[in-house]
Design goal:
α1 runs antiparallel to α2 and α2 packs across α3. The protein is built from six helices and 13 strands. The strands form four sheets. A five-stranded mixed sheet has the order 9-6-11-10-13, with helices on both faces. It has a three-stranded mixed sheet with strand order 1-5-4. Strands 8-7-12 form a three-stranded antiparallel sheet. By secondary structure, it is α/β, with parallel strands linked by helices. A hairpin with a 5-residue loop joins β7 and β8. It is elongated.
Length: 254
Amino acid sequence: MEIVVSDDTAVGDAAAGDVVAGDGAEPSSLVTIDALELVRWSEALAGIARTGLGFTESTYERERYEEILEVASDIKAAVAAGPADAPRHRAEWMKIIGSGVAGYATPKVAIGAVVGDDDGRLLLIQRSDSGVWLYPTGWADIGYSPAEVAVKEVLEETGIHCEVVQPLAILDGLRLGFTRLPLYSLVFHCRAVGGELAAHPQECLDVGWFTRETLPSPLASVDRWIDLAFDAIEGREVTTSFDLPRQPVWRGAH
């Protein structure tokens, strides 16, 4: 069976992951797979291997887990920059292997804050690493609760003081395709309570308040979250958004 990897959701007229029928009655041996799925599979394999390396004391098992890492790095490199990058992926995974519970591989956690003001405007930052606009976001810090991180990130990145209203979204970054590393994003609805706009000198190119009609560009994944954000800011009842379980997990749709 031949496998064709697609960066899009389709190759020709075939949806990614479908068997492409040939000219005759029998299906052909061509299967297309979304590149994002291969990245997810490679990260899952690497996580299993790293966790195994963190717990095992058997030389035999270590060799098997290290071989799984080799396979995972080959898959990820083939999809991303190319086969020459495989050793780099493996080296990065090997560097973060711990021992015992500390070695159990889990996704990174990022915290985001959708902040509104009394005028119904949305607080956005222009990220210095990409130039893209997005709500304030950052890595979860040890010693802080997720809500405390949200308040801290907003103040650090924008100069605005805020209070947390409610969780808005719990998202799997790999599944949704906005990251190529295992990451859960926890997004909170927050209300501005003070402060003055002041962009973080290293992390932000600009910050500002925006209405639906004055949103800046480029705005990251805007169709995915903007309606939910303004519904919350404008006082409409919202429920926390999350990724529903796939059936089956390893071949389900995004």
